[in-house]
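dumping this here so i dont lose it
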């Protein structure tokens, strides 16, 4: 035994990579991305950090990019997929397609975009005075732990020509694919402003809510945006892990709890705050602002490519004509908690918040316990 090397087992190649990159890691249930510590990141030639939300699951993570005034990131390509959200600043991204053509689009606060898989790309800060702050939700943990080979992931020349999409997908245009309420999809590569994109009615989630699902660069990443009208809140629901929920407009809070818990975990949110509903954890979102509140959810596995049976069950349904479990009452075998079945404390807490924020409640027409 004295000459035997230490056994190699229990390795997390992704976490080893984060340490090797020298990235600071922020881990918590709720994170204000504007306050995450960053440091120099040689690979991307900017400042960066890793954000690990508790309950994020094994497939996904977040990477934060801070691009200095007048600076740009190093050219990069990789075999993991990601979805970018612009927190602050204005700039542009240049993408080099497999055929050698280049596409450039300009982004600003609340822009959403994805770069087609393994295409060379680079981000530019358009300001000579202020930083640009971008966060990406990625499938890097899944890919790194599957292949555990850095060169294969970052130095692979394979072209995914079918991922580029239509030229208009880089200009802010897209195609609306109607499916059913809650599942309508906007296919594109770039959304200039999530605060102004048109949403569609999602009656099953309650209180006049609206949403749209995204298909970005034909990837396996999930993204959708939902809105709560002033003076309302959504129905509670649960699903599998891996979603990153970020406030886009307005402010409010979310309550999270597991079945059988006596108390709620409360996370207050505003633009820049992200949190993860954990696996099978009930969560419910509440608008306390005097404006509609929008939030963005990102993760691995979406409507086009659910990736796992749990994602298919939650978002789509397992049988033809079924609704996804997140839109189906728990009384019918789903994962949604109807207003009349929620804990009576939930509505009382919200009414107190309405009073604090001088907002008129508009939930009278719903059967609240």
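and the seq i came up w/
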């Amino acid at each position: 035994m004295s000459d035997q090397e230490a056994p190699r087992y229990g390795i997390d190649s992704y976490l080893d990579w984060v340490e090797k990159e020298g990235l600071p890691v922020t881990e918590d249930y709720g994170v204000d991305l504007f306050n995450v510590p960053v440091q120099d990141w040689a690979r991307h030639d900017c400042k960066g950090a890793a954000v690990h939300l508790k309950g994020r699951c094994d497939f996904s993570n977040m990477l934060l990019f801070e691009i200095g005034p007048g600076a740009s990131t190093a050219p990069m390509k990789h075999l993991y997929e990601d979805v970018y959200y612009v927190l602050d600043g204005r700039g542009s991204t240049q993408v080099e397609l497999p055929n050698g053509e280049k596409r450039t689009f300009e982004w600003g606060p609340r822009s959403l975009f994805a770069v087609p898989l393994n295409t060379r790309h680079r981000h530019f800060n358009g300001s000579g005075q202020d930083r640009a702050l971008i966060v990406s939700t990625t499938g890097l943990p899944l890919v790194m732990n599957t292949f555990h080979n850095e060169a294969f992931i970052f130095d692979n020349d394979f072209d995914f020509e079918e991922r580029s999409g239509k030229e208009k997908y880089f200009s802010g245009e897209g195609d609306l694919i109607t499916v059913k309420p809650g599942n309508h999809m906007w296919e594109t590569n770039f959304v200039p402003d999530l605060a102004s994109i048109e949403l569609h009615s999602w009656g099953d989630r309650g209180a006049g809510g609206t949403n749209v699902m995204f298909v970005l660069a034909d990837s396996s990443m999930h993204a959708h945006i939902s809105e709560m009208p002033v003076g309302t809140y959504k129905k509670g629901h649960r699903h599998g892990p891996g979603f990153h929920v970020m406030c886009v407009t307005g402010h409010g809070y979310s309550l999270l709890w597991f079945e059988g818990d006596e108390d709620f975990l409360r996370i207050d949110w505003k633009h820049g705050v992200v949190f993860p509903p954990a696996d099978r954890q009930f969560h419910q979102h509440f608008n306390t602002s005097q404006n509609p509140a929008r939030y963005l959810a990102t993760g691995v596995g979406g409507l086009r490519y659910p990736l796992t049976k749990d994602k298919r069950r939650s978002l789509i349904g397992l049988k033809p004509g079924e609704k996804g479990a997140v839109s189906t009452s728990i009384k019918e075998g789903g994962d949604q908690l109807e207003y009349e079945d929620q804990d009576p404390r939930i509505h009382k807490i919200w009414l107190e918040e309405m009073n604090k924020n001088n907002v008129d409640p508009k939930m009278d027409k719903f059967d609240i316990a």
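The longest strand covers residues 46-53.
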